[in-house]
Amino acid sequence: MNRLQDKVAIVTGTGPLIGGAIAAGLAAEGARVVCTGLDEDAVRQCVSAIEKAGGEAVAALGDVTDPAHAREVVELAAARWGRVDILVNNAMWFHKRGLLTMTVENYRRQLDVILGGAFLFTREVAQHMIGTGRRGSVINILSTAAWQGEPGNIGYSTGKSGLINFTRSAAMELARHGIRVNGFTPTATLPDDPERARELAEKMAASGEYRMDFQGLLPMGRLPTPQDYVPAVVFLASDESSMITGSNITVDGGATAKYWPWLPGSEGERTA
Q1: Residues of the chain by 3-state class (helix, strand, coil), percent to 5
Q2: Pick from 137, 124, 85: which is nearest to 246 by CA?
Q3: Max alpha carbon distance in the chain (Å)?
Q4: Which of 75, 135, 186, 202 is most buried, with most CB under 10 Å away?
Q5: Catalytic residue IDs
Q6: What 3-state DSSP class applies to 236?
């Protein structure tokens, strides 16, 4: 399909899970993609996968908190393909600590990656779009942890929650330029690879300080994989969503809509 034919996308944090799947999904719809991140192996694997599938992609290694890196990525996209149409702010640093155990330095670092990175890349991309008279779409990857109180994950939850109103504020400021800014909310995610999915499911099920039953409490009865997210992100990136801005699409199997005491996995509940 070619819903994004000839468009150019920048995706930050193109690791092997959500970011890589989104980058590949955009490329499958015709977009040319700049894959960014700190992990050289992960970024280059993402580029290689896109190219093997017949798409176009280029790697840009760097730290999203560095203003020079954000500027260089936009310049790379413009020099190589002449434009930037789509930005997906996915970069994050997952350092799971609680209020009582997280260091000030790590808290600030996590917020800088999640919020600072989104600020820098959105600003650079928006300035380029405005300067070239081009409309575009910015998509900020949120989390169910942005909408609910998760114990023991204070920096991540705070950063992702901050992205909610960053999305709204940027959307209002950029609307007059034809630039749309939206959020996309995923949840706990299993890899597409069955073996990695099994390992991660076991890790999630392991008891810790705060008991979590990710799969058992999800109304849809299973955790999503990255491929479950791709259609929604492609929609937000495409012209099909041309009147959607300052909004959010959630793909979480019903997690954030569930009435809190209900146990969806209880006996007799599930028929599918």
Answers
A1: 45, 15, 40
A2: 137
A3: 59
A4: 186
A5: 156
A6: helix
- Rounded to whole angstroms, the Cα distance separating 78 from 175 reads 22
pTM to 2 decimals?
0.93
Q: Which residue has the tokens 């209020």?
A: 99
| pLDDT at residue 196 tops 80 | no
**94 vs 160: CA distance, rounded Å:** 11
pLDDT in tens, 84-134: 999 999 999 988 899 999 999 999 999 999 999 999 999 999 999 999 999
What residue has token string 């820098």?
Answer: 120
Least Cα distance to 57 among 70, 69, 73 occurs for 73
Topology, domain 8-254: Rossmann fold (3.40.50)
| Domain boundaries of the chain, sorted by first residue | 8-254
Q: How far apart are CA 113 and CA 9, in angstroms?
A: 20
Tell how strand 179-185 and strand 248-250 pair up.
parallel
Distance CA 236, CA 249 (A): 9
- Beta carbons within 10 angstroms of residue 106's beta carbon: 14
Residue range 67-87: mean pLDDT, rounded: 98
d(CA 175, CA 246): 9
Instruction: Tell the residue number behind the tokens 């300080």, with chain if given.
Output: 209
Which one, of 74, 52, 51, lies nearest residue 62 by Cα?
Answer: 74
Q: Which of 40, 39, 57 is nearest to 48 (CA)?
A: 57
- β-bridge mates for residue 10, sequence order: 34, 87
Can you tell me whether residue 254 is helix, strand or coil? coil
Is pLDDT above 60 for 194?
A: yes
Coil, helix or strand for 144? helix
Alpha-helical (H) ranges within the chain are 18-28, 40-52, 67-81, 104-111, 117-132, 154-174, 194-205, 230-237
